[in-house]
């Protein structure tokens, strides 16, 4: 049999996506150098399914229907280049190679050029949703050659998550557009996770909610406008008890947070583009702060937080209400920052992104799926060149009506000495964006004072220099 699709790398993601593809009626062959993994995929698929696993690159390539379509799900970086190099001599013009990993977008651009020169279409496609998503419906973010995408479209639309019947996959744009969109997805993911962590801290140490109360707060919130995958799993996580001690498992988990780099890339590239994404930046740096464990233990002793004793006059119900509004505000501010970065990136790299499509395919399957993406999509559908989500009247009015609550929450955190950098950044982004005249005129004057860098004036055109002293 000639298989319709090939998968290279049968780790968790590759194997599950393969089984998903097979469930949707497509024949699929997988390649992995580990014989156990190659065999496991056939066993898992069960008899009668058109699923094959092999350790032979020759058998793999020869068993694929031409023009071939194959996906790589191997760790980002050198492994991707190594796999491409090993398969390239076996491939032919017209074949399509899809990289489904979290590859760094400049690597994708390089590979597109290298492979197009040989007549092979290369696709960077971000895939989100983890193990379950891969198995039952991920969100997929493809970019590259549009005609090649059209050939793959039936497979991708079949396996993707669906929201109201609409598949969470669509062609996003040229070159590395798919990897770029997935990178920013992960930046937003980091920021929302950080906002949840700050909320948890404030409710626990600040207001004194018990573990049981905390869990029900998140469960209740998932029935409101905060409805989202990350709020939902937080409710489930807080419920989980350690088998041995019976304590909530989270209380036994070290606070040192790890990362694989996608959030950092989002911030780094935002700086290159001069796109402000402060909530994402804060999320990246709080993971870095978490790694300074020994120093923090020492500092906690030397610089004790007596402010925690400060009693804040709060009615719990009222506080939870404010907290929910504050979370919604900060979450929307975070999406606004990420979307604005995507807009700038699309212009800088000629991706041709349609932000309504990005919002559409993020509504299901991915880690940042959230009810609010329906409104975000509507905003861009109404005006696809919207400079910033905050300028949409519905979203803008919604944030205006919640801003006092986020201010109250941040004040409480400050009074208690509890760090809430992502909330503060989300609020400051809003406050700065809607400020007509920022104090940066002072910075311009200072630059001119010490470096003769010149400044522009509000009343005349041109660049001016002053002898200040
Ligand atoms: C997803 C996730 C996925 C992965 C992250 C984790 O969309 O399914 O984002 O890609 O879990 O890369 O990133 P860190 O290890 O950096 O937290």
UniProtKB/TrEMBL annotation:
It is an enzyme of class 1 (oxidoreductase). Substrate binds at residues 102, 128-130, 185-186, 190, 260, 287, 447, 453. GO terms for biological process: D-gluconate metabolic process; pentose-phosphate shunt. Pathway: Carbohydrate degradation; pentose phosphate pathway; D-ribulose 5-phosphate from D-glucose 6-phosphate (oxidative stage): step 3/3. It catalyses: 6-phospho-D-gluconate + NADP(+) = D-ribulose 5-phosphate + CO2 + NADPH. Coiled coil: none annotated. Homodimer. NCBIfam families: gnd, PRK09287.1. This is 6-phosphogluconate dehydrogenase, decarboxylating. It comes from Pontibacter diazotrophicus.
């Amino acid at each position: 049999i000639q298989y319709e699709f090939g998968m290279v790398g049968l780790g968790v993601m590759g194997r599950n996506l393969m089984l998903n593809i097979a469930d949707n009626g497509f024949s699929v062959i997988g390649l992995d150098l580990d014989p156990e993994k190659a065999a496991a995929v056939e066993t898992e698929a069960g008899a009668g399914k058109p699923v094959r696993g092999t350790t032979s690159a020759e058998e793999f390539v020869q068993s694929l229907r031409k023009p071939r379509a194959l996906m790589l799900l191997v760790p980002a970086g050198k492994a991707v280049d190594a796999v491409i190099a090993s398969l390239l001599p076996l491939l032919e013009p017209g074949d399509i190679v899809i990289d489904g990993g979290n590859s760094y977008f400049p690597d994708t651009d390089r590979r597109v050029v290298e492979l197009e020169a040989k007549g092979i279409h290369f696709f960077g496609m971000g895939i989100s949703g983890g193990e379950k998503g891969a198995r039952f419906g991920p969100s997929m973010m493809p970019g590259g050659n549009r005609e090649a995408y059209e050939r793959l479209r039936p497979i991708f639309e079949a396996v993707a998550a669906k929201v109201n019947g609409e598949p969470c996959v669509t062609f996003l744009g040229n070159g590395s557009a798919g990897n770029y969109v997935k990178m920013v997805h992960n930046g937003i993911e980091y920021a929302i996770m950080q906002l949840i962590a700050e909320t948890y801290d404030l409710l626990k140490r600040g207001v004194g909610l018990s573990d049981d109360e905390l869990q029900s707060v998140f469960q209740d919130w998932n029935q409101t406008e905060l409805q989202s995958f990350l709020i939902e799993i937080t409710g489930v996580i807080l419920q989980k008890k350690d088998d041995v001690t019976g304590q909530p498992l989270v209380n036994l988990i070290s606070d040192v947070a790890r990362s694989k780099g996608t959030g950092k890339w989002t911030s780094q590239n935002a700086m290159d583009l001069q796109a402000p994404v402060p909530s994402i930046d804060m999320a990246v740096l709080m993971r870095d702060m978490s790694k300074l464990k020994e120093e923090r233990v020492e500092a906690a002793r030397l610089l004790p937080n007596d402010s925690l004793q400060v009693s804040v006059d709060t009615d719990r119900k009222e506080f939870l209400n404010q907290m929910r509004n504050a979370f919604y505000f900060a979450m929307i501010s975070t999406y606004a920052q990420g979307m604005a970065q995507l807009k700038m990136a699309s212009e800088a790299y000629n991706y041709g992104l349609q932000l309504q499509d990005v919002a559409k395919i993020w509504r299901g399957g991915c880690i940042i799926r959230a009810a609010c993406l329906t409104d975000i999509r509507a905003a861009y559908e109404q005006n696809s060149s919207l400079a910033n989500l905050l300028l949409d009247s519905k979203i803008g009015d919604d944030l205006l009506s919640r801003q006092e609550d986020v201010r109250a929450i941040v004040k409480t955190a400050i009074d208690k000495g509890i760090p809430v950098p992502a909330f503060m950044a989300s609020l400051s982004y809003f406050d700065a964006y809607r400020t007509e005249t920022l104090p940066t005129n002072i910075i311009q004057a200072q630059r001119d004072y010490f470096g003769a860098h010149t400044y522009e004036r509000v009343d005349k055109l041109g660049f001016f220099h002053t002898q200040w002293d």
